[in-house]
Structure formats: structure tokens, C-alpha cells
Amino acid sequence: MKRRLVLENGTVFEGTGFGSLEPSVGEVVFNTGMTGYQEILSDPSYCGQIVTLTYPLIGNYGINRDDFESITPFVKGLIVKELCEKPSNWRSSYSLDEYLKMKNIPGLSGIDTRKLTRMIRSAGTLRGAFAGPDEQVEDVVRRLQTLQLPTDQVSQVSVKNAYPSPGRGKRIVLVDFGMKHGILRELNKRDCDVIVVPYNITADEVLQLKPDGIMLSNGPGDPVDVPEAVEMIQQLIGKVPLFGICLGHQLFALACGASTEKMKFGHRGSNHPVKELATGKVTLTSQNHGYTVSSINEDVLEVTHIALNDNTIEGLTHKEAPAFTVQYHPEASPGPEDANYLFDQFMEMIHTTEKEGEEVCQNA
After folding, report:
1. What is the crossing angle of helices 227-236 and 247-255, to 10°?
2. For residue 187, pLDDT beyond 90
3. Which of 100, 153, 186, 278 could form a disulfide bond with 220, CB atoms 3.0-4.6 angstroms apart?
4. Does the active-site annotation cover 329?
5. Catalytic residue among 246, 256, 267, 318
6. CB-CB contact of 314 with 328 (8 Å)
């Protein structure tokens, strides 16, 4: 089955279709990971995007039951150089093609993904469409050039109602902006009593849950499109220890007077080097974001980490309140688990804050 990818700049890639037969439109981005396509497909942060995988062979270990980052995928399409139709892995339950058919996600194989990636690196992310055989390219390009990308991705992917993930340890309110299940797994490993709540929860509603700590999750889209979350975070800073990841990092920065901007083609992959400024230590990280914190209020925030590839901000800490954030994904394990210690750092921050509070009460 032939399928075409049409980009807003008029470029057409023709290859072989797999997965769903449905037409699809989205922002075309690329991910440089050699493995992890199942996690990529199920990461809610890819909501509204067509993902190009730069590694040339995809699908060789199939799809298994354990490696999903969400139950429902929100990706708009998948592009690969070569599709493996007969995976070989003892955990495999489905082929990649079978999974995409089940989830109604279109795929495209057999194109020059290197050329497409270089085009995105040069021009920036491009809007694209899987065009039907009867559609005129000129009509598709015209439609793409006037297409308004959605701004409600967080509301699409966030949980609608709060739910618990019980434990006997510290109570953590996990605000779901498009949460990867890996974050929940890391908190469960530490026996946290987690309550997952919607993105539009108010600060008062959070405090009514009596949290020991607050986690701000990853998620899709532009952080300025979620002003209610920024207001909620502003009211919580200094009241409860806080840890933010990816979109949570950006929203926290906005709440502290920083600014954000759209990146040319973003960071998406599993081997991005990040330097911790205090120690000089370099960590290999998993990343997926198209926006970055561009400037901060230095009276309020301190930069703790930077990306070595482009010197963008990768970590922040509040100068007075118990709160820190990172742009990358410490819950991910693309091979190394270098950044996993940040969850322990979060737990230690909670213990330290509680101890300081007890000392204040004793001295009062």
C-alpha cells in the first residue's frame, strides 16, 4: 500500500503505508533513540505529532505488555526507514504494525528518514499530512500552511478525575499534565502514597489532600497554553516541597517569572548529555520537548543543569522554597539510569523540610 507524506514546504515523501489507513495531520518531529519505540508511541507528550525515528530498523522486538507509558497513545503517526514485520523477542505480544492498527495510528516506511531529519534540523519542525492517493499535493500544502495547531493538548491527555496509587510512605500529589507511567512507578518504588490529579486542579484542592510533596509531570504542547496550572503552582511554592519534570519544569519556571520559547526542532532522544553545574558531572538523559526555558528571574531561581549540545536550561532550583525541576526525564531508562537519583533527592527534600518544620514548632 503506497502512502505519501506531504510537508507544508511542498516536499513529498512516498513510501509504504502500515498501521491504520486513516489520514492524519500533525507536527512532524524526529527522535534519535535506537530503541524505545513502544515508550515513544505511548508517551502523551507526543500528542498531536507525527514522529520520525532516525534509527533505520524499527519493530524488531515487537510490542509487549509492560513497556507502555500510557494506556492510550496520542501520537498522530509514525515514520520509519525499515519496518520489521516479524519481530523476535520472548516478551513480544504484537508486531508494531498490528499495534498501530489496533490503536488507529497510521505509519509510513520505506522513505529516506535521514533526508527528512536533515530537513527538520534545517527548517525546524514542519506540519505534515499523510495524504490520500486521490488528494492533490497543492491542496494538501495549502491546507497545511493555514492549519492552526491545537493548543489544548494537556486537556486531551490529562486524567479527568483524581485517583489513588496507595502506599505507606509519603503522600505525593502527582499533577497529571500528560504523565508517563514511569514517574508513577518511581514513586511507587519508594512506597509513596500517590494521588494522581487533573491538570486543572486548584491550589486549595491540592492542599486539601494534605500532601507531603507535589510532583509536576511531563506533558505536551506550549506551557503558556496552561495558565491555570501556572497560577496553581504560584500559590503552592513554599507551602509544600515540589519537583517538576519536563512540562512541569517549564510551568514552574513561568510561575517564578521566567519565560519560555519554542525550539527550532526540540530535544527528542535517549542520549542527550546534561551537565550539573555544581559538580561538573555529566549525565546521559532521555528527553522529549519542543519548548525550553529561555530566561529566568535570577533573584528567585538558580540554573542547576544545562544541555551540553546547545547550552539550554535543563534544571532549576528555587532560591528560598523547597522546589527543583529538570527538563529531562529521570524516570526513563534508555540503558543508563543516571538521573534516577533525583527521585531520592525529592524524598530527601521532603524529609528535610519536615524536620525543619518540627524544629520551628519546638522552638516556638
Report:
1. 70
2. yes
3. 153
4. yes
5. 246
6. yes
Q: Which residue has the cell 524499527?
A: 58
Report how far residue 233's alpha carbon sits from residue 255's, in angstroms, rounded to the nearest whole number.
6
Tell me the pLDDT of the chain averaged across its residues.
Answer: 95
Q: Which domains does the chain have, with CATH numbers?
A: 2-145 (3.50.30.20), 153-363 (3.40.50.880)
Q: Would you call 150 exposed, middle or buried from its count of C-beta atoms within 10 A (0-12, 13-18, 19+)?
A: middle
Establish whether 99 is an annotated binding residue.
Answer: no
Give the per-residue pLDDT at 334. Answer: 61
Do the annotations mark residue 7 as ligand-binding?
no
Q: What is the pLDDT of residues 3-42, one digit of tens each?
A: 999 999 999 999 999 999 888 999 999 999 999 999 999 9
- Which residue out of 8, 69, 186, 331 is catalytically annotated? 331
Q: How far apart are CA 128 and CA 102, in angstroms?
A: 23
**Cα–Cα distances in Å, from 83 out to 17, 110, 298?**
10, 8, 48
Residue 36, marked binder: no
Does the active-site annotation cover 331? yes
Is 328 flagged in the annotation as binding? no
**Structure letter (DSSP) for residue 201:** -
pTM: 0.96
The share of the chain scoring above pLDDT 70, in percent, equals 99
Flag whether 250 is marked binding. yes
Q: What digits encode the pLDDT tens for the residues 204-215? A: 999 999 999 999
Task: Report whether 10 belongs to an annotated binding site.
Answer: no
Query: Which three cell numbers, joined as nine digits, stand for 118?
Result: 536533515
> Strand (E) positions, the chain?
2-7, 12-19, 24-31, 49-53, 57-58, 77-79, 82-83, 106-109, 126-131, 163-165, 171-176, 193-198, 213-216, 242-245, 259-276, 282-295, 301-307, 313-318, 323-326
Q: Is 298 among the catalytic positions?
A: no
**Residue 15 marked ligand-binding:** no
Q: Is the model's pLDDT at 336 over the cut of 70?
A: no
| CA distance to 107, 207, 325, per residue, from 50 (Å) | 9, 38, 28
